[in-house]
Each structure stands twice: as structure tokens, then as C-alpha cells.
Amino acid sequence: LDNGRVIIVNEVGSYIVQLLASTMTHAQLVESVAAEFEVSEAQATIDLDQFLGELDIEQLLEPAAGQPEN
Known about the structure:
mainly alpha, globular
């Protein structure tokens, strides 16, 4: 990171970070996480949203090109 901090994530977090480099929708992210880790889509949604929320709090997310900022 630019500020010298290191962020450590688990296997699911690492997988999500890799997916975020693509142009997947939220629904596609959920489907991919559910399939990869053999969990329900409801659980994948909870885990994904919690992780994205943590990244947002740490200001580690930025909108995709062409997407408005919140």
C-alpha cells in the first residue's frame, strides 16, 4: 500500500481481491464465491458484503473505470 501498511487476508479475501480486478457484477461475485467455497449464495453474500465493507472502511476500494464514486 502507498502508506506502507500491509493488509493480511484469508483465502476467501484473497480470492475476492482477485475477482475484483475483473468486471464482474455483485451477483457474479456472489456466485463465484459460493461455487469456489461450496457455501450457499446467502452465506457468500454475507461474507462478500462484509469484506467489501472492510475494504471500503480502509479506503482500499475505488470505482471501476466509468463508474461514479459513491
